[in-house]
Amino acid sequence: MKRYILxxxxxxxxxxxxxxxxxxxxxxxxxxxxxxxxxxxxxxxxVVLMGANNDTLLYMPKITAIDQETFEAQDSMTxxxxxxxxxxxxxxxxxxxxHKGTGEKLKPGETTRLICRxxxxxxxxxxxxxxxxxxxxxxxxxxxxxxxxxxxxxASFNTDVxxxxxxxxxxxxxxxxxxxxxNGWVVxxxxxxVSRYTTxxxxxxxxxxxxxxxxxxxxxxxxxxxxxxxxxxxxMRD
Length: 238
Prior knowledge:
By secondary structure, this protein is an alpha+beta fold. The chain has helices at about 5-45, 70-75, 165-170, 185, 220-225, and strands at about 45-50, 55-60, 65, 85-90, 95-100, 110-120, 125-130, 140-150, 150-155, 205-210, 225-235. A hairpin with a 5-residue loop joins strand 1 and strand 2. The longest helix has about 40 residues, at about 5-45. The termini are far apart. About 30% of the residues are buried.
């Protein structure tokens, strides 16, 4: 019997390696599929995001992608009339700043608490996936605590104020770190101003994002799908 131990262990090792190769290939195929659907989303004209009651949530013409150099030359703004989105190559995130907000950027060493209202659209599934703009969630928006540590922005969901909004509750059970705010939501915080609603929604920072799986929720990361977000950020009262 002893003479079969070594060959059997080698066979098990080879089987494990083959399974690993298959998993790698499967992941590569999923990423390739993700790139294709994002490309189609950029080029499809028009994009109409529909709600559960067949109401139009967002009408969006063909997206014009710009690089970071162009974005910075435009005072870190995107031309909404051209439906411009800046592509951050390192992360694969596309961002459009609809409104920058009337306040000021969060300075190094500062912390703040923001109310986030959003739509989340699964690009791969071509469907609205979650939102806290539905009537049920109006009184319980998602709240995040934000810090600027020497220019590095970090954020976490706050559950002390209202026990969490739709985004937190939808994904908390599938996350290894439920209070972690997905990277896609954190990126705009380096460019927008912190402000409150006073005369109209234009006072608030508002962005639209295309977020690849690697910068999204844990669920998006494991299932390899990209999402589109429209988010407003509003400073909470002290």
